[in-house]
Design brief:
2 domains; 5 helices; Alpha-Beta Plaits; 4 strands; alpha+beta
Length: about 170
């Protein structure tokens, strides 16, 4: 989420992934951290340039898997203890017959938690596009929006111009 006043900054359009990546690296080197990047294709290079190294969704999936496994164990164990059925001297709480339920709940809750993590960290559902989005960003151009406080906007413009964008527009 942007920390600046919405619309205060510079939007630049680039014709290649390399140019957009270099622009992001240059802007971050100059101290601009509030960036928004638009790409017509998935681009791990841009994520790396922005300092995004891994998705937190995998943690959600791990927590869901552990929760599912423990829930399966507790559900089956407590049910067996609540309604004990002693068969041929076997223990009431036996792990082997419970493995199927534990496995199924592990898979189910892993999927549900991963979906929830994706929705939370992707800020979905998004009912409207970013005001800095341009239609060309979905066709053949890469976009970089740098949010800058009013006293740093001239500096942001000069850094963006030094990266030779195809088009640049200041907003705010």
């Amino acid at each position: 989420m942007s920390t600046m006043i919405e619309g205060t900054g510079v939007v630049a359009q680039y014709g290649s992934l390399g140019a957009a990546t270099r622009a992001v690296e240059r802007l971050r080197a100059e101290g601009f951290e509030d960036l928004e990047v638009f790409s017509p294709i998935p681009a791990p290079e841009l994520e790396e340039a922005m300092g995004i190294h891994g998705s937190p969704v995998r943690r959600w999936a791990l927590i869901g898997g552990i929760t599912g496994c423990l829930t399966g164990l507790l559900l089956t164990s407590l049910t067996s203890l609540a309604y004990p059925l002693i068969t041929q001297g076997k223990p009431i709480v036996a792990i082997k017959p419970f493995i199927v339920i534990m496995f199924e709940l592990t898979i189910l809750l892993t999927g549900i938690f991963a979906l929830l993590g994706m929705l939370v960290h992707g800020r979905l559902p998004s009912l409207r596009l970013s005001p800095h989005y341009r239609k060309a960003f979905s066709e053949d151009r890469y976009g970089v929006y740098v949010a800058a406080e009013p006293h740093r906007r001239a500096e942001a413009e000069s850094v963006v111009l030094a990266t030779e964008p195809l088009e640049m527009e200041a907003s705010g």
